[in-house]
């Protein structure tokens, strides 16, 4: 990824015309058809630079990001942090008012520095042929059956890794209770021998070293599509566990240093058009941040894209103060060291 980023930036160095925007985002997160449509309508080309974790994104942004970057996809929780807020420009009120198809809950969470992009759950993907009984609870991933030993993938993320352990232990993902966080820590430590790697699932199944033996994974809902595409096995299934799930929301923000703010605003307005948001979501397997009434029945009834009501009621978005909890970071680094 570093080599690819370096080569792209070399190609952009000294030349980034107004007819091109550079978007820093997750891999498999922006449909090629959407980029083509935008270029056809406006003549503006979209170039991507990809990251593979929030931590990798944050390291680059905090370490002095390339001046060619225009737009960043960023989680709504991070937008509560003054460190990251300082990087982005306020979105014109006119753009936010135009987004009448966007769910106002998501608009409020992304705030005045961004537009809502995609949302979803964190669940479990597993191969049906590799387990003796269906996986329906987080506890089954933390105290796995023997056949899963060394064959599990967990996400490398400070908040979500700890939060699914909290859910497994029966606690809120927003807790600040020390004993509850310690219980999550003990679950994560107990699980370590069963974990093959801490990274995104679709990348893990492509790894030549251990990809073929992966049988279960902590997965962001939209990544399940990429997991299926990258794996040679076709018996994967996805479930939102009975205990509920951390819910995530990603937003699109324009960097203050962008030299193409007008074009960037035009692109974000384009992304939030209902027809484009649906095309993007359906192509990439994610849930666009639209009001539910805008989603077709095929999306509303798809448990991967839209969690079942019972599990959704037990799921939670992060409160803003979670990002200030230093014990979570300590747990994360202790588990992954």
Automatic annotation (TrEMBL):
It holds the Pfam family SBP_bac_8. One of its GO terms (molecular function) is polyamine binding. The keyword Transport applies. Keywords: Periplasm, Signal, Transport. It comes from the Bacteria. Residues 1-18 form the signal peptide. One of its GO terms (biological process) is polyamine transport. CDD domains: PBP2_PotD_PotF_like. GO terms for cellular component: periplasmic space. InterPro entries: SBP, Sperm_putr-bd. The keyword Transit peptide does not apply. It is found in: Periplasm. This is Extracellular solute-binding protein family 1.
């Amino acid at each position: 990824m570093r080599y690819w980023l370096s080569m792209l930036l070399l190609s952009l160095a000294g030349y980034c015309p107004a007819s091109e925007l550079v978007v820093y985002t997750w891999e498999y997160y922006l449909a090629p058809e959407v980029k083509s449509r935008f270029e056809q309508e406006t003549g503006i080309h979209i170039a991507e630079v990809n990251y593979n974790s929030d931590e990798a994104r944050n390291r680059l942004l905090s370490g002095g990001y390339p001046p060619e970057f225009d737009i960043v996809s960023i989680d709504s929780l991070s937008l509560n942090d003054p460190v990251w807020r300082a990087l982005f420009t306020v979105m014109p009120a006119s753009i936010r008012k135009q987004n009448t198809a966007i769910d106002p809950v998501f608009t409020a969470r992304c705030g005045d520095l961004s537009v809502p992009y995609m949302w979803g759950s964190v669940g479990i993907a597993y191969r049906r042929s590799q387990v003796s009984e269906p996986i329906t609870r987080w506890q089954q991933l933390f105290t796995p059956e023997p056949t899963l030993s060394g064959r599990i993938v967990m996400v490398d993320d400070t908040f979500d890794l700890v939060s699914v352990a909290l859910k497994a232990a029966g606690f809120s993902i927003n807790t600040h209770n020390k004993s509850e966080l310690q219980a999550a820590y003990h679950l994560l430590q107990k699980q370590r021998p069963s974990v093959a790697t801490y990274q995104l699932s679709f990348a893990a199944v492509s790894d030549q070293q251990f990809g073929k033996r992966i049988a279960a994974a902590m997965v962001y809902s939209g990544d399940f599509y990429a997991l299926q595409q990258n794996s040679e096995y076709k018996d994967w299934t996805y479930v939102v566990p009975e205990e509920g799930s951390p819910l995530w929301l990603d937003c699109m923000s324009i960097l203050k240093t962008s030299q193409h703010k007008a074009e960037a605003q035009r692109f974000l307005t384009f992304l939030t058009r209902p027809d484009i948001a649906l095309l993007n979501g359906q192509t990439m397997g994610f849930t666009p941040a639209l009001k539910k009434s805008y989603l077709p029945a095929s999306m509303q009834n798809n448990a991967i894209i839209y969690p079942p009501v019972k599990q959704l009621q037990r799921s939670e978005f992060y409160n803003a103060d979670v990002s200030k909890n230093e014990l979570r970071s300590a747990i994360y680094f202790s588990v992954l060291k």
